[in-house]
Amino acid sequence: MVERAANHTPGCAECNKSTAAEGQTAPALVDAWLVPAFFSLIMLIGLVGNSLVIHVVTKHQQMKTVTNFYIVNLATTDILFLVCCVPFTATLYPLPSWIFGEFMCRLVNYLQQVTAQATCITLSAMSVDRCYVTVYPLQSLRHRTPRMALAISVSIWIGSLLLSVPVAVYQRLEAGYWFGPQIYCCEVFPSVHLQRAFIIYSFLAVYLLPLLTITACYTFMLKRMGQPSVNPIDSSYQLQAQAERAAGIRARVSRMVVVMVALFLICWGPIQVCILLQAFGMRSYVLYKLKIWGHCMSYSNSSVNPLVYAFMGNNFRKAFKHAFPAVFLWRTRQRVRPGNMGAQEGGEMDRQAPTGQAEMHFLSSGS
């Protein structure tokens, strides 16, 4: 999410002026090195993870599905955000001033808003898509096409680019004072009401509506999966077998839903709440620290997306293993040891037995 503070330095201007007048330098804050280090870790993990997602999908024909198209779009958005925004934002903490000029001030903050909005709307589109294929499996065969997924993704990008224009228009360089004269990159709206209106819009579009959409879709899927689908004439054994299989599937889906909703809440909630509080007049050192933590959590979402929405799927794990066999070589050697032969044979038998994977296509990232 866009950092809407004028700078990252706490304290009032009058105190800073008086301190500077006494010949003292700016204090060495822990944020100056800790936050950039965390951003560097986020960038490394995010670039590697998202690049692997794109590599696995583009190199395997069986992975080129509608669901994976959304995942690739999500990975591309995260890479764009990590490359174009994270390095510039990291410099705000060790450097007292913005040093990249007014054009980059507008561009970086504009891209932050665009990518954040595109990411959250793409996550919502993925949830709706998985809900549709689960609830209406036959109808989805006609309507869920790569062309439709492409049209939706392009619409998401066009909408995000247009709706984020106010960030570029009202972003500018402002003079400030923090142990000497400084230059800050900040948003300056024509009025406080317009600024608050845009912040409320961002809260709804980037956080609240996607959260409600994701939660509603997966709740509806769980409810749908809990309904029996066998005919009354089926034997009691078939009823019991299907009930046990459905219970196992619901348990796995429930864990997946909890992970998705929890990550969305943790990654995007703090910064959104802090921005709302700040927009409506709350100013404190505690809020400043909470906003830094929320800023880090929102950025970390770009590095955890590949793990949650790709590598937790069975088909992605198989394709990743096929693309990078050396990574899994140690597991193969472990299985061929004499003491593990029985476990290996049992695993093969389990894979041959029906596991109800057909009902899990919407979570396998391969449907």
From TrEMBL:
Give the Gene Ontology MF terms in alphabetical order. Answer: G protein-coupled peptide receptor activity
Q: Which organism is it from?
A: Channa striata (Snakehead murrel)
Q: Where in the cell is it found?
A: Cell membrane
The yes or no answer to whether the keyword DNA repair is present is no
The protein's matches in InterPro entries, at most eight in alphabetical order, are given as: GPCR_Rhodpsn, GPCR_Rhodpsn_7TM, KiSS_1_rcpt
Occurrences of domain G-protein coupled receptors family 1 profile (ranges): 49-309
Transmembrane segment boundaries: 33-57, 69-90, 110-128, 149-170, 198-221, 257-280
The UniProt entry, under CDD domains, shows: 7tmA_KiSS1R
Cellular component GO terms, alphabetical: plasma membrane
Q: What is this protein called?
A: G-protein coupled receptors family 1 profile domain-containing protein
Q: Which PROSITE patterns match?
A: G_PROTEIN_RECEP_F1_2
What is its membrane topology?
Multi-pass membrane protein
